[in-house]
Amino acid sequence: MSIPSNNGREGEASSLLPSNELSLHKVQLTALVHQTVPLCAAAMAPVLVLLGGFLLASPVRASDGSAPTTITCLTRGVDLRKESADVLCPADCPLWQFYVFGNVVYASLSSICGAAIHRGVITSAGGIVRVQTLPGQENYSAIYANGIQSQVLTRWASSFSVAGTKSGALEAAGRPLSTARPSRDKRLKKLVEKKVGNKDCKTDIAFLIDGSYNIGQRRFNLQKNFVGKVAVMLGIGTEGPHVGVVQASEHPKTEFYLKNFTAAKDVLFAIKEIGFRGGNSNTGKALKHTAQRFFSLENGVRRGIPKIVVVFIDGWPSDDIEEAGIVAREFGINVFIVSVARPTTEEQGMVQDVGFVDKAVCRNNGFFSYHIPTWFGTTKYVKPLVQKLCSHEQMLCSKTCYNSVNIAFLIDGSSSVGDSNFRLMLEFISNVAKAFEISDTGSKIAAVQFTYDQRMEFSLTDYATKEKVLSAVRSIRYMSGGTATGDAIAFTTRNVFGPVKDGPNKNFLVVLTDGQSYDEVRGPAAVAHKAGITVFSVGIAWAPLDDLKDMASEPRESHNFFTREFTGLEQIVPNVIRGICRDFLNSKQ
Q1: Which of 401, 397, 36 is nearest to 202 (CA)?
Q2: If you average pLDDT over residues 171-183, what whole number do you get?
Q3: What CA–CA distances, in Å, run from 263 to 43, 192, 253, 254?
Q4: The pairing of beta strand 405-412 with beta strand 444-450
């Protein structure tokens, strides 16, 4: 006996930082973020191999006809000696290498290529950038754009801006546009690019399709056609997007996993072979199943890649979808809802929750919901949806070093510090904290001050917004006394990190001290390391190097820092942030 589909409806989302040479072996730059670039851009140019220093590429002309200066991914604005220059950024610079301060106007210690990508002047394919030297300024702002999180900086002696040129698309390849290759080479290159896929849209995507009686057999087939078109336009490949499909009906069924296919033609065939199941549209049950079971290493999920579920709903779900949305967010999954044939005014009385879309998506900001009025004539809706899925900087539910860490600051309040220097330590803490997305479900900050005794200034759970954390830091009062760093580390391990030891965030401890500890630090630090706490030690003035190394996590060289003056703490801020992001990324591999 046939069951009517959808009630008979047929109608139907002052530069003191180390030079490049020193920083290359002293600091490993990192940040877990992803980039966004124009839709389905194929690999635009071969990678320029960089073996330190500057390497010259084949002749490329700037917009004024002169040859631009070839630079590396790590070249900073301060490294240029001209007021204005055209430079050539290489292709495929890893985003984790970049460190950028400011927005529009960048502090000169920023990476030029990083600033250019952040500003949207170039993409990861590289290209020619016009750099203009500018005077220094105060209060460089922090903004997340194009896959790069810029950082705040109180002041700097010089700045620069970046702009595009009129040169062509093959700039990063280091050859003129007129250079022709034999047709056979072009065909081979296209084959390689097709196999690799769209590296600028590297995501793991589960399509959760509607297989209920609500959609019916006819519209189910139209839905499969639409999903196939989206899959092709994404640019599936070994280094591009990977996709899988789960069908929602009475009981969810995984049709194929991320690991099964890495070629668009294979995905299209697999989608074509999916059979209609029927039953109630238990979308909530299927979304929860997908969040908990689909995205696993065994099923092909890749570490550090945005996880996305695209949920197709014809009409409305039969069950509660809000709880499933919460579960998905807890797993770091970005949920999109593509709704087709929304319930009419007369039908809304049959819907369990009219606001189901807003409650299920990653964020209720309009970006994660997409409406298609009908399953007929859907081709024009493919590209806008793919653009959303490839916009890495918009994937607010992805787990990154900025929204998934606990950081405790252990502050030396001994009498040798002094009140004015103590304020500089608090400024250091604030500048580090500003880089992170602090919330009840994101990153969390704690502070402990110590002398011979310890004082919990605030715990990881006391403040759930960045504004409240910064206000609490400013309110910390200087204790003055002796220095018992070992006891303070043990206190923090037990009282700050103990209550959250089974939580989802990675734990970091930043120890600031200006002198010799009266007690032993190696033992308490080892206990902290064993408890999964990554320790960074920051020494000032008379802090002994041996103590700093004993406290620091491995490798010790990249987890301890030293400055002779308290004013030098400002220079260490980016190093600590980079170190936290580097260790977070490494912990996910």
Answers
A1: 36
A2: 39
A3: 16, 12, 22, 19
A4: parallel
Residue 57 pLDDT > 60: no
C-alpha–C-alpha distance, residues 159 and 453, integer Å: 44
What is the DSSP code string of 388-444? HHT-GGG-TTS--TTTSEEEEEEEE--TTT-HHHHHHHHHHHHHHHTTS-BSSSSBE
Q: Is the distance from CB of 150 to CB of 84 less than 8 angstroms? A: no
Q: 347-368 burial, b if ≥16 CB within 10 A, otherwise e?
A: eeeeeebeebbbbbbbbeeebb
Dihedral over Cα of 469, 96, 300, 325: its sign: positive
pLDDT tens, residue by residue, 61-84? 444 557 888 898 888 888 888 889
Q: Which residues pair with 309 in a beta bridge?
A: 206, 335
Tokens of 432: 């580090």
If you average pLDDT over residues 27-48, what whole number do you get? 32
Percentage of residues in the chain having pLDDT higher than 70: 81
Q: List the structure tokens of 387.
A: 């653009």
Give the Cα separation of 525 and 409 in Å (integer).
14
pLDDT at 37: 32
What is Dmax (Cα atoms) for the chain? 86
Q: Stretch 568-573: mean pLDDT, rounded?
A: 94
Measured between alpha carbons, how far is 476 from 470 in angstroms, rounded to an integer? Answer: 10
Beta strands 105-107 and 153-163 are antiparallel
Q: What is the mean pLDDT of residues 468-480?
A: 96
Q: Can you say whether the dihedral through the CA atoms of 293, 296, 300, 302 is positive or negative?
A: positive
pLDDT tens digits along 137-174: 888 888 877 878 888 887 888 899 999 876 433 333 33
Name the H helices within 34-180. Answer: 112-119
Q: Please give the Cα distance from 344 to 316 (Å, whole number).
A: 11
Residue 93 CB partners (closer than 8 Å, separation 6+): 73, 113, 114, 117, 124, 126
pLDDT tens by residue, 390-423: 988 788 788 778 888 999 999 999 999 999 999 9
Tokens matching residue 176: 């003129």
Structure tokens at 68: 């631009």
> Which region holds residue 146: left if phi is over 0, alpha if psi is between -120 and 50, else beta?
left
What distances in angstroms separate CA 418 from CA 456, 483, 539, one per listed residue?
20, 13, 15
The C-alpha angle 229, 185, 267, rounded to 5 degrees, equals 20
